Request: fold
Amino acid sequence: MLKTIVSHRLIGVVFSVMCASWAMADAPTGYYSSCENKGGAALLSALNTKVGPHTVVSYDGLWSLYTTSDVDANGKLWDMYSTKRWTPGREKCGNYKYVGDCINREHSFPKSWFNDAKPMYSDAFHLYPTDGKVNGQRSNFPYGECAGGTTLPSNGGIDALGKLGKSTFAGYSGTVFEPVDEYKGDFARSYFYMAAAYNDKISSWHSDMLAGNKYPCFSTWAVNLLLKWHRQDPVSQKELDRQEAVYASQKNRNPFIDHPEMVEYIWGDKKTGVWTSSASSEPELTLPVNGSTVSMGSCGVGVARSIKMTVKGTSLKDAVNVAVSGAGFSVSPTTLSAANVNSADGATVTVTYTAPKAGNATGVLTVRSGSLTNTVTLTATGYDGLPASAPTNISDESFVAHWTNIGDTDANGCYTLTVLESNGETVDTYPRSVMAADEAYLVDELVASTPYSYYLTTASGIKSNVINLTTAAPIPSIQFLYDGDLYLTAEPGVPSEAYEIILDVENVSEDITLSVTAPFQLSTDKNNWAESVVVSPQEDRFFLRLNSDSEGSFTTTIKAVAGEYITDDTEVSGMVSLSPTFFEDFEKEAPGGYNTSGGTVKGTFSDWYVFEAGVYGVKNEAYEGSNYLRTSKKETSYAYTLSPKRNGVGVVTFYAAPWAATESGKLDVQTSTDGGKTWTTAGTVNVESAAAKEYKKYTVTANVSGDVHLRFQQTSGGRFLIDNIEASDFRSAIEGVESDYHSWTAYSLNGRLVIDLAEDSQVAVHGVDGITYFRGTMHAGTNELNLMKGLYVIVVDDFTRRVLVK
Reply:
């Protein structure tokens, strides 16, 4: 009896296997009227005038926008670089090591191509929330296609999406990053948007994907690639929803989501014609894509293999007929109603190949509706016996093996998978039983850049063909490790404190060039400062500071370049100002009673909004002076600053006392960085005393950067007296073990090893030759050792540093 096996995985390069719709968004009536009756460069220029001007969302503001533009049905952030769904407001990068560690804001159109310029830098139509590790792997390489590229290893059940490798797309041979099929159209339409919205700027940008002109903007190979992705991965509901969310904030639209057919009138088959709004109502067969190729994979001789394909169209009036030619190929059904094909999900047909003999086979699928015809080339391979096929997701430590299920399994539905080393020895823990119906298995815990092979065996002993592969080379990685936020503060003309950043380097052999933009500066020895420094892969730290003669807010990214590897996704911000000291004693307010309905009181540093609280001036009840803040007996009492404190908040100190000894309770000290929309509790204090109105000093560490509002929220107890509130500026290092680590440092200066200590400490200095060059006590302050050039390991207490003495 003929046995039919239906594939449960995406086959080949065709995207129409997925149930995607050639959907269109609803732009406001007449939105694109100025673009009517134009094509090619003229249409692109008209779109520039229409969608280029927009309301700029700040780079930090993207996080808020993502909570409406990039959330799934469960309210999680949708990631196109990994399978993880992220909780909004949490897990932001910082530090990361593996896939699934943190999320950042990916410039799908790399910011280095336009020199980090605004407003492109924060345009949400090309910035997406993505996995930090995969974003780092992509770097600023062009998008492309790379058969056999490297995919990052999975971590904790989270898979990386996309791969990096040498381009196998015609016309380009450089390194590219290939997203997964599901999102290729999304990224293509983002690129077409950039060409439209910034058509007046794009000619000066630089990338191998760009042509250096206003039309066609992209190099020939890039146009062909983006057209292919746009056609094979039509507009999805995800894009439609995102369009409306971004439009609500930026007040402009991506025209190629509203009218996908515009792409053809600018870069595609209709670029010599003119676009009209009625073009979208012309009959069209959109799926399967005309001229595309579908690989049906492999199957055993006499064993049928089937795939599902979507047939989709717009404004079709005639029934759709589907036929297939080629020995062994068949399709069902062969007739589809125009209504079904025009529907949002389209109609589905099943294409089947039954190999009459071993070898490669080709067929042609033809889809017709009236005068419209789309043809698709079908490819398949038949095998005598059990077919094993090429691996996917090849990383430096793993790959996914594939085969075709032909039946003939053991009682548990399994085949035997054997993995061999290059010398023919079996890899540890293999052979293994694998579920035949899965047709895929992750082989991991392998060695980088190493040849392997695999084959499968059925229950009756039929052996598959042998598949050979080589695992990927070790993946270069340069990570910056630091405490808290990279937010620096300084006064005009006075450099900020030197901020130590740890280098975590893997699989990099070249020297690393680190750079920032002014007024930020870098150093390896805290003595010589510049916007660019060079370090060796063996060094494990450098220093960052902010130094400006002028007041203002500043941002930069730390860029690391080592050969072809580039990373520039670590953001730094800072402020230079003559910031007034935050001190509040409420002496400017005329004493009064409780504001039971809420109201404003004058403050020394800032005016305050108070609820169920007020400023009192009872003699001898203030800690100092005559005025103080008093809360009521209700747990809803609070007071917060109406003006933010610049330069962040480090430590908050204040004096508080219960009105009566029996009225002790709890008081939360809270901060807000979004103007008071949300509050975070920095700490809770117990306001208590053996005697009424006996003040005690309380300290809470907030360690929050940016513009910060403070709030005091009563959560239990009776009336509290609060006075003399002070808040220091944000400081980068946090309390605990990390601050112990940063209490000392070591670096090379003028050919000597310098060790700076905050206190007397036991120190050991070891060479990579195994010799201990110093062991003993060093005193607080600067200590120097005259050593030969080379790499040394310095140990202070339980912490180590590496220093290359130059």
